[in-house]
Amino acid sequence: MTSLLSAEFVAIDVVASSREELLGALADGLEAGGYVKADYKQAVLDREVKFPTGLPTLGLKVAIPHADPEFVKKSFISVARLAQPVDFEEMGGSGSSVAADIVFMLAIADGKSQLTTLSALIGMFSQEDIMSRLRDAATSTDLFTVIDDEIRRSIS
Amino acid sequence: MSKNILVACGGGIATSQTVAVKLENLIADSDLAGQVTVEAININQLQTYIKSADIYVSIAQHGEEIYDIPTFSGIPFLTGIGADTEFEKIVAALKA
């Protein structure tokens, strides 16, 4: 199975003044990479309003914005660790705010076939030691390695 | 006893299926192993599927709808926080 991650799409110290700006920039990157269609960006923005994706995890707070498969060309995950947290709403409609430290933008063409990777990715969120390593990774390459290793370890 | 748990999220793609896998694993390790099925769906399919479900695990807004089956939050299974407690409640409801 090919990895859904690439070091090129894992970034640290990402600066964004708003959720919309952040989602727009990440979606533009995915479109430029050929992973999503042009209307993916709007779909992600709309979906985040209707079904927010902030997760109040231990340690680093997370958001997993995504859109429906029809907007995706090729499954992929883009990762941005933020210089300053960006506010998302909590998943599940509680209305609470989650100041996300790291964002995983999911472009998933077929949930079923990507389920092991997704489960491995989301499994990281409940492991405090992994979340500490995501927080402490000094470079984007280190951050990519932590995530990639953990997903490979989890699905092997 | 054969029971059915329904997990619904906005898309039925990423999160509901991930939570369903987590619940399946927890059930396989419990004394309910082999007696419970878990199904992940899109929230738009809820009205159709909820009729045949015993437990509903929600990851999308509850909204105004009140369902007449026990309903739990799927969020603890994504964050890990409170997952044990929520699973114990689900087990208790399955055995009720």
Overall description:
The complex is a heterodimer of chains A (156) and B (96). Chain A has one domain: Mannitol-specific EII, Chain A (3-Layer(aba) Sandwich), CATH 3.40.930. A 5-stranded mixed β-sheet of chain A has the order 1-4-5-3-2. By secondary structure, chain A is of the alpha/beta class. Chain A is built from 5 helices and 5 strands; from the N terminus they run E-H-H-E-E-E-E-H-H-H. Chain B has one domain (3-95): Rossmann fold. Chain B is built from 4 helices and 4 strands; from the N terminus they run βαβαββαα. Chain B has helices at residues 15-28, 46-49, 76-79, 83-95, and strands spanning 3-9, 36-42, 55-58, 71-73. Chain B starts with a strand and ends with a helix.
CATH class value of chain A: Alpha Beta
> Could you tell me the number of beta strands of chain A?
5
Strand content of chain A: 15-25%
Q: Between the first and last Cα atoms of chain B, what is the distance in angstroms?
A: 11 Å
**C-alpha-based Rg of chain A, rounded:** 14 Å
**pLDDT under 50 segments of chain B (min length 5)?**
none
Largest sheet of chain A: 5 strands, mixed
